[in-house]
Amino acid sequence: MSKEDYEVVIGLEVHSELSTKTKIFCSCPTEFGGEPNTHCCPVCMAMPGALPVLNKRVVEYAIKAGLATNCSIAHVSKNDRKNYFYPDLPKSYQISQFDMPLCTEGYVEIETKDGPKKIRLVRIHIEEDAGKLNHDEYGRGSLVDLNRAGVPLIEIVSEPDMRSTEEVDSYLKKLKSILEYIEVSDCKMQEGSLRADVNVSVRKKGAKEFGTRTEMKNMNSFRSITRAIEYEAQRQIEVLENGGKIEQETLRWDEVSGKTFSMRDKEDAQDYRYFPEPDLAIINISDEMIDDIRKSLPEMPESRRERYVKELGLPEYDSNILTSSKYLSDLFENATKVCNNPKAVSNWIMTDITRILNEEEKEPNEIPFTAEQLGELVTLIDKGTISSKIAKQVLEELFKNPKSPQDIIKEKGWIQISDESAIKEVVLKILEANPQSIVDYKAGRDRALGYLVGQAMKETKGKANPQMLNKMFLEELNK
Amino acid sequence: MCTKGVKTTCSSKMLENFVAPYNATVVEKLEDEGIISLGKLNMDEFAMGASTEYSAFKTTKNPWNLNSVPGGSSGGSAAAVASQMVPWALGSDTGGSIRQPSALCGVVGLKPTYGLVSRYGLVAFASSLDQIGPITKDVEDSAILLNVITGHDEKDSTSANVPKKDYTKSLVKDVTKLKIGVPKEFLGEGINEEVKQSVEAAIQKYKELGATVEECTLDIANEALATYYIIACAEASSNLGRFDGIRYGYRTKNYETLKDIYKNSRSEGFGAEVKRRIILGTYVLSSGYYDAYYKKAQKVRTVIKQEFEKLFEEYDLLITPTSPTVAYNIGTKSNNPLEMYLADLCTVSVNIAGLPGISIPCGVDKQGMPVGLQLIGKPFGEETLLQAAYTYEQEVKFRDKYKPQFKS
Questions:
Q1: Chain A environment of B2 (Cβ under 8 Å)
Q2: This prediction's pTM
Q3: What is the predicted pLDDT for the residue at A245?
């Protein structure tokens, strides 16, 4: 048998940090970074006697995420303690939710090559993040930083509904986009605000029963998730093909070697001793609260996409890309408001902006300039103040040193020459210097015109209005 | 209770040098009233015990007989008040730790309704049972101190949002409108004969003072004790996890791996009774045993609450002994944990149901050791409790008749 005879089955537990201003059980800031142990208080440092108070915003955000992923919202929910020892977990228990999560039974719809597919969600629950261990540069041990301890998380647990790394990739992208749209998480993977535990098993195609699964914890890039699944599926197939059995275990993915390793032996199997958190009250959620949150949900990507195609006349492909990220979509909409030229804005985003982001390995949310500045750039082109060639330079400048494009072109002296007499002067000068081109043109070689325009642009450092140049060269040549 | 800048040890080697970086809410409230803290008092380690013998540091003696235990776990507080070293003290009560030492030391100890006093800054033993309360020489002081420490606290999610009351208004000598129930199960087996006689005499006194007193049934004593030890130990096993030798408190010198730090710090830092309860609590929460122990205990807890609710449809308050015995000699029970657990027989059900309870002295035995009378009230029924306690106290004038002798 070969790899083609097997099917890979994948389920994900995605942890997403919520973008509330304060932590889940105290009023410390959730801000990323900061000197170690400066965003802390007795509560998140687990001083003796300190008690948690649930941040209401966290509940709202989780419900928002639940509604945006078609979940049922519980009317009665509670927190539970998950007990285990680790130095980044100051209380020696994590306050999480066990048997009464806030949201249950939802789904996320993804596009696959066989059409749309629903990835079912088991649940979404709230919990607190742990701190961080930093390894002492002198090799004397680990240092505990509790700035992240108590940052709110939601855990989104999917059914094992994914069958390929492509499906996993679209699921994660879709989920990320939803969380960004509803503004509950900034999903910055490089800051660890979106992480996933990946469950993988394989089975013979057509089999009804699932195979034994293994789990890889705390993966924080789409690329490593894809690589890890591919490696792990292949490893499992090889074990089975060689007559072996898959052990249900937690594995560690090693990015450097591109392999998975067993993390702990079975003797050490964790018993988290979950029990209801006695320091917190039951969470009661009224229909009114759910309705209010439902009303506050913004327009979702599907609906925006449809609007772009139908009302703005954008191609389906472009609309898909634009709406895949809320940042891009917002950038597009707000820039369009300024310049009223959706197609031009879309083109800028689809081509040059995307190219620069790729070159600099940046996420759309790291674009340094504002939508207003982009809109202004498009207006300047439309009004003929700058050429599109200059506009590209302005865009590069916007990435480096964002400010009003108007100011940039003034400072750099990039204003397009549209003055008729000035253009005429350049045209005559170029014609005089290139008699051979006139001859060529008259002999029917149209390329000569392009050459002359190019020379004129060079002469004016790209500032001459290209349409006017064209027109005037033709007038002179056809005289 | 955490006191900023002052050692907060819980009488444990684990916190021997721990200086709290913040004040408990009750400490803040006392300071706001200008009350000066004279010091901190001995207790059983992490409030686990009924004799103060499980302190990692010192043995507290009972002022009435220096060979006897003061009770516990807030034995230091009760002994300090009884010996008039301080006018009043605070204690914490998870299963009787205010009322039982108050009974054994002949002073007044009040455990408020769960949620009436903020637990913020109280080093947690069992979160769903712990309450802070006053230990005082008389009922009037109890009411005054209760006025200071009560009030809703946003830092404690289990703090009740009820209007603040002036408890001194309850210092009225009148029980004629009260209907009192006496659960016969708490005056039967396991209760020392002399204790029983003192309590029965007090019941008789209430009748004479014009209260309606009836015998009633509350057949939960044994279940309450089992339920208490399961729930309290389960919560404690989790609450005490933070004492791991990583951030503060005792850390072993003897380690190479992370596991060694945990294992040795906790083995060396905790005393035997604390370890016993952590092990018990860990066991009852373990997968495979959770349903049989913890979950079942929670169900029994609901039944116990309902049983009390039924009685309180009929009665304004209930009377029982506070402790099944008077103070006994130091060293006689400390090696027999099961016998020690029986000291909580009359008090734990009050914590399980979250009710208020007060212990007031009601006499002495032949050796001159004080006996405590426990009054149990409805949720947030502290006013009725205080009034009934005050009426009895004014009538009997225990303090005028009996004083600690410091005999040895």
A1: 47-49
A2: 0.85
A3: 85
